[in-house]
Design a protein that fits this description.
The complex is a heterodimer of chains A (about 170) and B (about 400).
Chain A lengths: L2 H19 L3 H21 L3 H26 L12 H22 L16 H9 L3 H22 L12
Helix pairs in contact in A: 1-2, 2-3
Chain B lengths: L1 H12 L1 H10 L7 H35 L23 H10 L10 H18 L17 H10 L1 H11 L3 H32 L4 H7 L3 E2 L2 E2 L6 H17 L11 H4 L9 H25 L16 H22 L5 H28 L4 H24 L13
Antiparallel strand pairs in B: 1-2
Helix pairs in contact in B: 3-13, 4-12, 5-6, 5-7, 5-12, 7-8, 8-10, 8-14, 10-12, 10-14, 12-13, 14-15
The chains are: A mainly alpha (about 170), B mainly alpha (about 400).
Chain lengths: ~170, ~400
């Protein structure tokens, strides 16, 4: 493990924990953005440029902003008195850690895993584009259709039917 | 004769690259990659803020000229009578910013308020990493360079939000909301107009895109802006980049007459200067991207001008576009919020989508005058139809004024 990997991992994990435990929701959202950037940096260290840049473009540039806007539009700026971390939380964390360890141990010792690590394929953006437009074109189109439907639905919900002559401005 | 000129100027063209190699050559081999990156970063950190300080003078003097006044013309060398026509103005401006009191509102979220200008500068400076400033002069030659630019540029919105929210000021928050809505809306035509270039070149690498525009036909460069889809693409890109860099007529996020200074109302001293710097650096970066995508990057417009060093071409084009930006700022009034949104979603987005189609058509049609005529016709018909269609419901007529009795 390189020093760079450890630094990124620590920052990412710290930001993720902070995103869960901070009192102010906007701070949580900002820490989540830091965490997303950390994940993107991890991808970049694995030479997965495309995934890393998409992570930043989608999660930091859009999802974080979306979350922040949702917080601003739905709540007042008051933060709760107490921390969200309570005794029940710690029990939950303990259970989660145990389940994770068990699952991880089971998967790692499973014989279904390939014993030898295959050499990492050299993937260029061109390959990804070709695969998306060739082999996986149907899933891609379906995702596009679903997203369009969701967007039209959102517009319909937000759209208030008003009398036509309202548009006319004096 | 041009051959000789080319041979004579070739070392000048590569002077930064050779200097870098020469400087790094003094170090042990293990340190070279790090030192090389450090020197490149230092170069960018020196050149573009310096350009920023010069451009602020040009902007103030240019707008002054257009508005029939002098602009700054006093500051010269202290102790002498030399005035430098006001071009020394940026030094006292910078010193003033440095020495001003830094005021933070009592209700502000101190940490986020402090971090916002820093977070603004990081993505803006990162975008310079992929821009090819000259031949062999791209700092990080990523395979997905264009994607990197847009991804990192998108992070600017986070900092705008941080600044607006942490100030606990209604003007700041309003400005941030406006800025984010505007940036998100205009990012879509911006990206869609660049997609056409990616489709034609077949690569997201900015150096490859510049190389695809090298060469000349009939003495004129093969820049994408000289094709029908490229012209439309560049116009959309240009307008969207005006909006992305919050320049007039899209300067609603910091409309002085409405919301003071928008999201950086509560910033003073050097933090304010950092916002100012970040905004200008963002503007230079996006202008540089437009030049790279459509205006041939560092290539010369005419074959006979090839001998001029590539970085000078890049700089010349950049300053030219900056001049147009300043010109527009002094000429056009500010848009209204609904006009801004309508323009992005009802006009630019359909045209950008159509342009993607036209670029595909261009790719598949045979080279010749036919594809020129076909593509240009589609674009002009769509432009006129869309414009007419949108104007019909506007009920434009003579303006009526109403006064309070």
């Amino acid at each position: 493990m390189s020093t760079l990997l450890i630094i990124t991992a620590v920052v990412t994990l710290f930001a993720a924990v902070a995103a869960m435990s901070l009192r102010n929701l906007v701070h949580c959202a900002l820490m989540l953005a830091v965490s997303f950037s950390g994940v993107a940096a991890l991808y970049l260290q694995l030479n997965a440029e495309f995934v890393a840049f998409t992570e930043i473009l989608v999660y930091v540039g859009a999802v974080a902003i979306l979350i922040v806007m949702a917080i601003l539009l739905t709540r007042s700026g008051e933060s709760p008195e107490k921390s969200v971390l309570t005794a029940g939380w710690y029990a939950g964390v303990a259970v989660t850690a145990m389940v994770f360890t068990t699952l991880g141990w089971a998967i790692l010792s499973s014989s279904a895993l390939p014993q030898t690590v295959a050499p990492a394929p050299v993937v260029s953006v061109k390959n990804i584009g070709d695969t998306l437009m060739g082999r996986y074109v149907l899933p891609l189109e379906i995702v596009g259709l679903v997203l369009t439907a969701a967007m039209i639905g959102a517009v319909l919900i937000a759209f208030k039917a008003e009398p036509r002559d309202k548009n006319q401005k004096s | 004769m041009f051959e000789q000129l080319n041979r004579f100027f070739a070392p000048v063209d590569q002077i930064f690259v050779t200097t870098l190699h020469w400087l790094v050559g003094f170090l042990p081999a293990a340190w070279r990659p790090v030192a090389s990156s450090m020197l490149c970063i230092a170069f960018i950190l020196m050149v573009f803020p310096a350009l920023f300080s010069i451009v602020t003078i040009f902007e103030r003097k240019g707008i002054g000229r257009i508005q029939n006044r002098y602009g700054p013309n006093r500051v010269g060398i202290p102790g002498t009578k030399i005035r430098l026509a006001g071009f020394g103005q940026f030094l006292p401006d910078g010193l003033k910013m440095l020495t001003k009191e830094d005021i933070v509102p009592r209700a502000a979220d101190k940490l986020v308020h402090f971090l916002a200008p820093v977070v603004l500068l990081i993505p803006v400076l990162l975008t310079y990493a992929v821009l090819p400033f000259g031949r062999n002069m791209a700092l990080a030659d990523y395979d997905a360079g264009l994607l990197f630019f847009f991804a990192v540029g998108g992070a600017v919105e986070v900092s705008v939000f941080m600044a607006g929210w942490s100030s606990r000021n209604k003007y700041s928050l309003l400005g941030a909301m406006r800025a984010i809505a505007q940036m998100l809306s205009y990012e879509i035509p911006l990206i869609l107009s660049s997609v056409t270039v990616v489709m034609i070149v077949g690569s997201l690498n900015l150096t490859r895109i510049v190389e695809a525009q090298a060469g000349h036909t009939f003495g004129l460069a093969n820049w994408f802006v000289f094709t029908p889809w490229g012209l439309l693409g560049y116009l959309i890109f240009f307008i969207a980049s005006l909006a992305e860099s919050n320049r007039s007529p899209f300067d609603l996020p910091e409309a002085e007459s409405e919301i003071i200074a928008g999201y950086f109302t509560e910033y003073s001293g050097f933090k304010f200067a950092l916002f100012f710097l970040g905004e200008y650096l963002g503007m230079f970066a996006i202008i540089g991207l437009g030049i790279t995508l459509f205006l041939g990057g560092w290539t010369a417009p005419f074959a006979c001008l090839d001998f001029i060093p590539s970085y000078l071409w890049f700089l010349t084009k950049m300053l030219g576009i900056v001049f147009i930006f300043i010109w527009i700022r002094a000429t056009l009034p500010r848009l209204r919020m609904d006009q801004l949104m309508n323009f992005a979603w009802k006009f630019m987005l359909p045209l950008a989508l159509l342009n993607v189609l036209v670029a595909g058509l261009w790719h598949y049609l045979a080279i010749g005058p036919l594809r020129w005529i076909a593509c240009a016709t589609i674009i002009i018909v769509a432009y006129v139809a869309l414009g007419r269609g949108l104007m019909r419901h506007q009920k434009l007529g003579q303006r009526t004024y109403r006064y309070a009795d």
